Each structure stands twice: as structure tokens, then as C-alpha cells.
Input
Amino acid sequence: MAQNNVVLHVADVHKRFGGLHALADIDLQIEEGKTHAIIGPNGAGKSTLLNVIIGKLAPTSGQVVFDGAILTGKKPFQINQLGIARVFQTPEIFADLSVLHNVMIPALAKRDGMFKLNMLRTLDSETGIRAEAEHMLEDVGLINRKDSIAGSLSRGDKRRMELAMCLIQHPRLLLLDEPTAGMSRHDTNTTIELLKKIKARGMTKVIIEHDMHVVFSLADKISVLAQGRIIADGTPDQVRGNPKVQEAYLGGAHE
Ligand code: ADP
Ligand code: MG
Output
């Protein structure tokens, strides 16, 4: 019988930084269409794991397989081209360009293989991509800011813009590193609603998050990372009731 449509398999991954074992024995299977949350205290290795998946860091051993293709050894832009997009913990945007242009650039980069600086000159002639970018901005509730300079947006709005920059790539897998970090409760709730909308479209997502409200309202599955190891995984209810998790994370004084 087919395995529950595993789209991403992190297989026996280890990552060492000198003497520090930042990731140990990580085995993670992400199923198609699911929202899989990775939680854990500060320094647990969550961002390191995401960086290994997107090719920013090479694992010390083990490999990452996406849709049958081995990602390990590939460059971040090649992995992105295979259908993995990521919202970073610190937004990576073009601060001097308009919001609309920021959202158009990833679509152009995808179409043309890679982003080239001379694309900036042709942005305004790309009417098809412009229309799609406007559609994405409507989706994330930012259409009224499309002509604003991206650097002038609030932190929450930058996050929304970055989400639109990912969605326009129509990724098969969307990775989000603390998508609500630094947001007010109101912005957090708006983002949760937005992520639910994306979920309803069947997009597979991996969310790294320490806000329990976000995790429990979105995740189908949760893996708990502590000191570089997965100490528990399962449904939100299974994880919530796990004493090891409460000790390592939920009841701790972290974050
Ligand atoms: P989290 O995202 O869960 O807070 P990180 O993945 O950022 O944790 O970090 C896990 C551990 O690895 C931490 O102890 C951190 O200091 C260390 N670490 C992360 N990146 C590097 C790096 N590039 N070089 C050395 N140590 C690192
Ligand atoms: Mg982190």
C-alpha cells in the first residue's frame, strides 16, 4: 500500500556545528495537503532544520527527499524551482521597491529560471504577472498598499507581503518560519485566517511556530523538537497531552 502520500521525507538527518549537535536523528515525513507544525523551545534546532530542507545548510549526514528527488546537495534556488517556497523568520524583501514589484519578482524568477537585475527594468511591461500579483495582494489583504515602498510596511504587513511572494510561485510545499513572530494579536488572527484559507486549497505546509494558539488552530500534525531531537509527534491532542512535551516546552519558561 502506498505510504500516506509523503511529499517530503527528512531521513536520518544530523547537523553538527563544531561540537554542537544541532540536529540529531531527525526523521520526519510530511504528508501531501497537510499542515505540519514543528514546535520547540528557543535553540531547539527548528530554523536549522528548515535551512537544511531548503538547501541553505548541508546536513552532516542523512538526506532530504522531496517528491522522489534527493534535495541534499542542491542549491537553494534549485530546490525552490522544484516547488518549495519559504517564508523566512526575518522577512527577505526588496525594501526600496514597491509592494507590487516585490510580489512580481518571484514569479518572474520562476518563469525565467533565476532573478536577474535587468528584470527590474521590464517589470512594468509584465502585465500578466502584474495581474496575478495584484490578485495575490488581494488574497493577503494588502492590495491597498500595492504602491507603497515595501520597507515602509509594518512588520505584520511585510509578513503578508512575503506570503504573497510565496503564493505567487504556486509551491507544492510552503515552509513558514514563525509566520506570526512580532505580530499583534489582531495581525496574528488575520494571518491564521489567511493560512486556513491556503490550507483549504490543499497546499502542503510546514510551520515553525512557538505561538501555541497558532499551532493548535492550524496543525494537522505536530512534531516537537528539543535539543536537536524530535521528542514527540502526533496530532495536536496527542502532543498536548504528552508529559515529555510539557516538560520540554509547554510548561517550560522558554520564549
Ligand atoms: P531554533 O530555530 O529552534 O530557535 P536554531 O536552529 O536557530 O534554533 O539553533 C539551534 C542551535 O544551533 C542553537 O544552539 C544555535 O545557537 C546553533 N546554531 C544555529 N545556527 C548556527 C550556525 N550557523 N553556527 C553555529 N551554531 C549555530
Ligand atoms: Mg528559529
Q: What stands out?
A: The two ends are 42 Å apart (CA to CA). The CA atoms of residues 212 and 250 lie 9 Å apart. Residues 46-47, 89 surround magnesium ion (ligand 2) (CB under 6 Å). The beta strands are 6-17, 20-31, 35-39, 61-66, 69-70, 84-87, 173-177, 204-208, 221-226, 229-234.
